[in-house]
Amino acid sequence: MAFWLFKSEPFKWSFEHQKQVGDAGQQWDGVRNYQARNFMREMKPGERGFFYHSNEGKEVVGIVEVTATAHHDTTSDDPRWECVDVKAVMDMPMPVTLEAIKAEPRLSEMVLVTNSRLSVQPVQMSEFKLICEMGGLDPKKAMG
DNA sequence: GCCAACGTTGGC
DNA sequence: GCCAACGTTGGC
């Protein structure tokens, strides 16, 4: 079981939008970066990740779950670009800011910190649990 | 709004 | 296959 982080600018696609589409989920489209695409290819239905608001907010705001394996991104004509489907699972009671993440020595290896431009990235289980705790969320609940 | 870091493109 | 030029991301 792997854990992930999905980054989105809230004025383009926010966690609120994500919640509105419900359990049907929605393709995580628009990714045009090989590294990010390759991580999506590794994802399996049922795996969970953080929903992170970049630019505005700069915080982890909720938990999402992968509902479909990688398939063609319908917003691109180019068959190279694929994406998974995700659905919103629960809110982070207290959003965890990038500032707080950077201030936590145990999170210094997070991809969010070491490669801030990667929009889809893996998260270690220890990192996942710790951020849940920082956000007031029981890690067991978040992990499903 | 700026700019550093990074990724991609295309000429050679 | 190299690398300069360019475009984009995202923190500040």
Automatic annotation (TrEMBL):
Family matches, as Pfam families: EVE (PF01878)
Record-linked SUPFAM superfamilies: PUA domain-like (SSF88697)
Domain (EVE): residue spans on this chain: 2-134
InterPro entries per record: 5hmC_binding (IPR052181), EVE_domain (IPR002740), PUA-like_sf (IPR015947), THYN1-like_EVE (IPR047197)
Name of the protein in question: EVE domain-containing protein
Species per Swiss-Prot/TrEMBL record: Aureimonas fodinaquatilis
